[in-house]
Amino acid sequence: MTTPNIVCYLKPTCGWSQGVRAIMRKYDLPFEDKDVINNPDLYDEMVEKSGQGLSPCVVVNGHMLADVSGDEVEAYLLQAGLVEPTELAADAPTNQACGAHHHSH
């Protein structure tokens, strides 16, 4: 399979953004991690490309997925045939809002 070209516009710590990163790790996909919080130019670039201001935004082979969770990114990758289904579990929650706090037991 050809490795897709993936650019992710993400926040450093947001649960949604961590979920997207977890999906990239799950499928061992290289991606460009663009920090939209600490780099205003990247935020502006994301808004220009996606037409809206919510992150995460993920561009897969030029296709913009705007305001998505890790689950939605995974569903797109599978549907587009860009990754093979795997039984591996993601190493972080893939559908977690920014304000969510989880406690280890």
Question: Care to describe what's here?
Answer:
Helix content is 31%, strand content 16%. It is an alpha+beta fold. It has one domain: Glutaredoxin (3-Layer(aba) Sandwich), CATH 3.40.30. A four-stranded mixed β-sheet has the order 2-1-3-4, sandwiched between helices. Helix 1 links the parallel strand 1 and strand 2. Helix 1 runs parallel beside helix 3. The C terminus is likely disordered.
Layout of strands and helices, then pairs:
Blueprint: E1 6-10, H1 15-26, E2 32-35, H2 40-50, E3 57-60, E4 63-66, H3 70-79
Parallel strand pairs: 1-2
Antiparallel strand pairs: 1-3, 3-4
Helix pairs in contact: 1-3
Radius of gyration: 13 Å
Global mean pLDDT = 91
Helix proportion range: 25-40%
Return the CATH topology.
Glutaredoxin
Largest sheet: 4 strands, mixed
What fraction of the residues are assigned to beta strands by DSSP? Answer: 15-25%
The CATH superfamily appears as: Glutaredoxin
Low-confidence stretches: 100-105
Chain oligomer state: single chain
Distance between the termini: 39 Å
Q: What characteristics describe this protein?
A:
105 residues, alpha+beta, 4-stranded mixed sheet, 31% helix
Task: Offer a quick outline of the entry.
With 105 residues, the chain is α+β, with helices and mostly antiparallel strands. Helices cover 31% and strands 16% of the residues. It is globular.
